[in-house]
Amino acid sequence: MKASIVSSFKAVIKSGPNKGKVGDRHLYSVTGTAEELAGFKKAQGDFYAEDAEGKPLYYSNNFCGNTCTLIVSTSGKVIADMSEFVRASSLATQFPGALGDAIAKAAAEQLLGGATASVSTPAPVKKLDE
């Protein structure tokens, strides 16, 4: 199954150790085969939601990229496959310094579809008396 980002927003956390606090939520639209979507619906149970057009929705506290693969775990929960992010993080930490930074930047651009924030150097400001 694939999930594509629809929106990101702040919401009050309803359960767990951070209950009552405001946290990030990310909404994804889900696509897949009829069999995958049936398994998704069953696994989501009371948390199953659809948009106005009847397309399944997936909510996550963690940003999983602009698109991601969803899997049903052995415990029956729907989770985002974050293995590429884990591999990229591991690789970047293996090489400290400039090489690790370059690996992290390249991986982020690849994983986020080039949608990373860029840092630009501002043009020098010319003094008025020059």
Q: Any key phrases for this structure?
A:
alpha+beta; 130 residues; 6-stranded antiparallel beta sheet; disordered C terminus
Question: Layout of SSEs?
Answer:
Blueprint: E1 2-12, E2 22-31, H1 34-44, E3 49-50, E4 56-60, E5 67-72, E6 78-80, H2 83-94, H3 98-111
Antiparallel strand pairs: 1-2, 1-5, 2-4, 3-4, 5-6
Helix pairs in contact: 2-3
Structure description:
The protein is α+β, with helices and mostly antiparallel strands. The protein has 2 domains: 2-81, no CATH class; 82-117, no CATH class. The chain is 28% helix and 28% strand. The protein contains 3 helices and 6 strands, in the order E-E-H-E-E-E-E-H-H. Helix 2 runs antiparallel to helix 3 (98-111).
Gist?
This protein has helices spanning 34-44, 83-94, 98-111, and strands at residues 2-12, 22-31, 49-50, 56-60, 67-72, 78-80. It is α+β, with helices and mostly antiparallel strands and 130 residues long.
- Tell me the strand order in the biggest sheet: 3-4-2-1-5-6
Low-confidence stretches: 115-130
Helix vs. strand class: alpha+beta
Number of domains: 2
Fraction of residues in β-strands? 25-35%
Q: What is the radius of gyration?
A: 20 Å
Count the DSSP helices: 3
Find the count of extended strands (DSSP E, 2+ residues).
6
Q: What share of the residues lie within helices? A: 25-40%
Q: What distance separates the N and C termini?
A: 61 Å
The topology string of helices and strands comes to EEHEEEEHH
Q: Sum up the overall morphology in one term.
A: globular
Mean pLDDT: 84
**How does the major sheet shape up?**
6 strands, antiparallel
